[in-house]
UniProtKB/TrEMBL annotation, chain A:
One of its GO terms (biological process) is transmembrane transport. It is a peripheral membrane protein. It comes from the Bacteria. It is found in: Cell inner membrane. It comes from Pararhizobium mangrovi. This is ABC transporter ATP-binding protein. Residues 24-275, 301-550 form the ABC transporter domain. Keywords: ATP-binding, Nucleotide-binding, Transport. Belongs to the ABC transporter superfamily. The lineage of its organism: Bacteria, Pseudomonadati, Pseudomonadota, Alphaproteobacteria, Hyphomicrobiales.
TrEMBL record, chain B:
The keyword DNA-binding does not apply. It is a multi-pass membrane protein. CDD domains: TM_PBP2 (cd06261). This is ABC transporter permease. Keywords: Cell membrane, Membrane, Transmembrane, Transmembrane helix, Transport. Residues 95-296 form the ABC transmembrane type-1 domain. SUPFAM superfamilies: MetI-like. PANTHER family: DIPEPTIDE TRANSPORT SYSTEM PERMEASE PROTEIN DPPB-RELATED (PTHR43163:SF6). Belongs to the binding-protein-dependent transport system permease family.
Length: 604, 306
């Protein structure tokens, strides 16, 4: 489908959504989970209804019980740990809570369908797309294979998958995340269910893809009149898609409100806190220019013509025949005490750049730290450099060894680099713990005893242990709830002011980047397409890709009028290329005040 | 795919050459003197020296190995010291019986192991699960001569359902295959159980259930092909395990395969036969692994052979 067709189709106004009779009523829903210390409720006495053509958002942070609610409605609670302890789920006159597995099976996918968070793992890797869509149809309608195939193609067309027919024989791994999520949606909506439960449907997707998927859900809802229960932690997504919102906390309803009322005049303090914590775009415009704030800065790290390429082998002799151009000749400087951000979507090379700087992947080009070229150093020299550059990773659950106490984890860098006497090290650990907002008596505990936010604080303490000059933070707040995220971002800023650290901040989240950065570089396909101060990038984006990234961010304001932007249905081209076919290098041009933009965009 | 096969076959040949060097070195490590063995205890020192000269045993190791290696290329595995026949002929005559036994064992272990593992995973945490795992544990732990003798006693001696030993009909095959397969079945049931439990937790299983598919379809179409992959990879390695098991099982049941041949050869220190059998086993292991790797992409399309 061409771009113009996509727009015209979306522009067609279908009969106004009938927010008529309630299709699903949840009444006093209670879900219990058995844990080590007896069973506890994860959803307690929750009641709500959702009407035809309406989108109801269940919003809340992790542990609020929002996903458990959706699984309870579907009868898919993870047995035997979780069980429905009370309440009714009325679909018309039928109480789904009393239906039993056989009856529930006939409802699932037919009357109530569900889409999930992780498109990468929610399709079966060993079955073709066609088979998975067709079986969803055949599970409920007694039609032949050929007819079901026709219906499957129809369903894939409806979610705007290009070349739908040829996709039927493909396997999930051949499709991108956005395309897979479309397939999941196609399966869910193929039988025109009354209710669609969307559990964090766009959380795992890139922001431009998220915008496409949310728009698609809206369009389909308008055509089919489906009631949607949208489960999300993202208040921006809520503002853009929902008609009504229920805010959940610890399994209980905090507030139920119409969308514009909730954002304009939230009733409950918790809702206000939640909304206040949401990072918003447009904050950089009234910020003091960073140069004035810090005075004349000196360059801490500069990257010259940095490239990272991975060779792929193939053929009879297993020789290199293709190459992944993960990072392709990028150059930038990071000043002392500043926050420099790399933004871009998955596969753009931002994390690979971070790894190259931290010495975790081999690179070409030059990295100069404090006037010394890291590349030419011997073993001991590289070890010294590692002291100056530390990393904080994305997943605080995976980046702490679960068999070590958190105190030992924070102490380990001091041991490795032989800093001070053992007693001094322990004192330093306690100091660090207190500095990041933990207490001294927690050092003997193990990582599993901490929450996600606390663990990320431990990771920060570990990175700080050696008093580095640069901390590389790779998606370090992406996995955290917004309120926790806001506090961790504040902590990072405080530490910067106190210790004079520079951050290389890697993120896909434009709002977070705008909140924390002094300067920003936008990456696309391994190259920088635009670089400048935070205000330059966000207030005056020049490159079309930068604009698309910014425009696609959901705005936590239901009255925000989204400027119609060209919807991309295409895929980002691949960075895998044949040998001797390097990608064309972009040249950056200064458009004033150190605002660098890729030349092709300037000319256009 | 063809490139991959060519490369893997080349690798396999290198491995086999390595094995042949090691087995040939056995001749030197073992205290037995081949010339003395051939000549017999009563032979004079002169006869022994003659034989040694004839066999070229006075040449340096490299020269001897090279001669042996050239022979291998022509399918000449050497001559048995005691039986005075070509090792290649001896092995070839007994190989079909062993292959048949291995096939029977693979069928047994897959049938028992996969079923037990599947049932245990689906009934996880119940008495059925625990019972099956105890059975599999016993299967893994029991030495094969014990399992073999036990099966023989119960099914052949007491019940008389199967012959006590020998070779020829299908019913001769049952007990040896079972004995050889029990060990693998124990392993497979454990692997299958944990693999299946892991797969049943995956997101795509939840998606399949959310589509309203029947439990049977979810288990057999969605879960099983994913869960079976690690087991497939094991079958290749298993052929190696069989080789040691075969020596025991063939002796217990009087099965005329290469295991028995090897056993007799070991007792009489008939080194050329031991070398021949070792080499054939190595070929079987290498081929088994290759086969497992080649089959995998047909089950999981994500696996590309490069």
């Amino acid at each position: 489908m061409s771009v113009s067709e996509a727009i015209s189709e979306a522009g067609t106004v279908m009969p106004a959504s009938q927010t008529g009779e309630p299709v699903l009523r949840v009444d006093g829903l209670t879900v219990m989970v058995d844990g080590e210390d007896g069973s506890r409720p994860v959803v307690s006495d929750l009641s709500f209804e959702v009407r035809r053509g309406e989108t109801l958002a269940l919003a809340g942070e992790s542990g609020s019980g929002k996903s458990m609610t959706s699984l309870a409605i579907m009868g898919l609670l993870p047995k035997p740990a979780a069980r429905l302890a009370g309440g009714r789920v009325l679909l018309g006159e039928t109480d789904l809570a009393r239906l039993g597995e056989a009856g529930m099976r006939r409802i699932r996918g037919d009357r109530v369908a569900m889409i999930f968070q992780e498109p990468m793992t929610s399709l079966n890797p060993v079955l073709t797309i066609g088979r998975q869509v067709i079986e969803a149809i055949q599970a409920h309608e007694p039609i032949g294979r050929r007819q079901a195939r026709e219906r499957a193609i129809e369903a894939l067309n409806a979610v705007r998958i290009p070349e739908a027919e040829s996709r039927l024989s493909q396997h999930p791994h051949e499709l991108s995340g956005g395309m897979r999520q479309r397939v999941v949606i196609a399966m869910a909506l193929a039988l025109k269910p009354d209710v669609l439960i969307a559990d964090e449907p766009t959380t795992a997707l890139d922001v431009t893809v998220q915008a496409q998927i949310l728009q698609l859900l809206k369009d389909l809802q308008r055509d089919l009149g489906t009631a949607i229960i949208l489960i999300t932690h993202d208040m921006g997504v809520v503002a853009e898609t929902a008609d009504r919102v229920i805010v959940l906390r610890n399994g209980k309803m905090v507030e139920e409100n119409a969308i514009d009322v909730l954002f304009a005049k939230p009733r409950e303090p918790y809702t206000r806190e939640l909304l206040a914590a949401v990072p918003r775009m447009g904050t950089s415009r009234d910020r003091i220019p960073d140069a004035e704030r810090r005075g004349a800065a000196k360059t801490l790290l500069s990257a010259h013509d940095l490239s990272v390429r991975f060779d792929l082998t193939g053929g009879v002799l297993g020789r290199v025949n293709r190459r992944v151009h993960a990072v392709e000749g990028i150059s930038f400087d990071i000043q002392a005490r500043e926050t420099f951000s790399l933004v871009g979507e998955s596969g753009c090379g931002k994390s690979t750049t971070a790894k190259a700087i931290a010495g975790l992947v081999p690179y070409e080009g030059d990295l100069i730290l404090d006037g010394r070229n890291i590349g030419g150093l011997d073993r001991a020299g590289r070890k010294r450099v590692r002291r100056d550059i530390q990393m904080i990773f994305q997943d605080p659950f995976a980046s702490l060894d679960s068999r070590m106490t958190v105190g030992d984890l924070v102490r380990e860098p001091l041991d490795i680099h032989d800093v001070g006497k053992p007693r001094e090290r322990n004192e330093r650990v306690v100091e660090l713990f207190e500095r990041v907002g933990l207490t001294a008596d927690q050092v003997r505990r193990y990582p599993h005893e901490f929450s996600g936010g606390q663990r990320q604080r431990i990771c920060i303490a570990r990175a700080l242990a050696l008093r580095p000059k640069l901390i590389v933070a790779d998606e370090s707040v992406s996995a955290l709830d917004v309120s926790v995220q806001a506090r961790v971002l504040d902590l990072l800023k405080e530490l910067q002011a106190e210790f004079g650290i520079a951050y290389l901040f890697i993120s896909h989240d434009m709002a977070v980047v705008e909140t924390i950065s002094d300067r920003v570089a936008v990456m696309y396909l391994g190259q920088i397409v635009e670089m400048g101060s935070c205000a330059q990038i966000f207030a005056d984006p020049r490159h079309p890709y930068t604009r698309r990234l910014i425009e696609a961010v959901p705005v936590p304001d239901p009255n925000y009028e989204r400027a119609p932007f060209i919807r991309m249905t295409g895929e980002i081209p691949t960075p895998v290329r044949k040998l001797n076919d390097p990608p064309e290098r972009l040249t950056l041009q200064d458009v004033g005040g150190g605002h660098l933009v890729a030349e092709e965009a300037v000319r256009v | 795919m063809i490139g991959y096969l060519v490369r893997r076959l080349l690798q396999s040949i290198l491995i086999l050459i390595g094995v042949s060097i090691v087995t040939y070195a056995l001749l030197y490590v073992l205290p037995a003197d081949p010339a003395r063995q051939i000549a017999g205890r009563s032979a004079t020192a002169e006869t022994v020296a003659n034989i040694r000269e004839q066999l070229g045993l006075n040449d340096p190791f490299i020269v001897q190995y090279w001669r042996y290696f050239l022979g291998l290329l022509h399918g000449d595995f050497g001559r048995s010291y005691l039986q005075r026949t070509e090792v290649a002929d001896l092995v070839a005559a007994r190989l079909p019986a062993t292959l048949l036994l291995m096939l029977g064992a693979i069928v047994c272990e897959l049938a028992m192991g996969l079923t037990m593992g599947l049932v245990a995973a689906l009934r996880r945490g119940t008495n059925t699960d625990q019972g099956l795992m105890v059975v599999s544990f016993v299967g893994v732990s029991a030495p094969q001569f014990v399992t073999g003798l036990l099966l023989l006693y119960v099914f052949a001696v007491r019940l008389g359902w199967f012959p006590i030993g020998g070779y020829g009909t299908f019913s001769h095959l049952v007990l040896p295959s079972l004995t050889l397969g029990v060990l693998g079945a124990g392993w497979y049931s454990r692997m299958m159980r944990s693999s299946m439990i892991d797969v049943l937790r995956q997101d795509y299983i939840r998606t399949a259930r959310a589509k309203g598919l029947k439990r049977f379809v979810v288990v057999f179409r969605h879960a099983l092909p994913n869960a079976i992959l690690p087991v497939i990879a094991m079958i290749g390695i298993d052929i190696g395990l069989f080789m040691s098991g075969i020596v025991v099982v063939e002796s217990v049941f009087g099965w005329p395969g290469i295991g028995q041949l090897a056993w007799q050869a070991i007792q009489r220190v008939d080194i050329p036969i031991i070398m021949g059998v070792t080499l054939v086993s190595a070929i079987a292991i290498v081929l088994g692994n290759l086969l497992a790797d080649v089959v995998a992409p047909f089950i999981d399309p994500r696996i590309k052979l490069r």
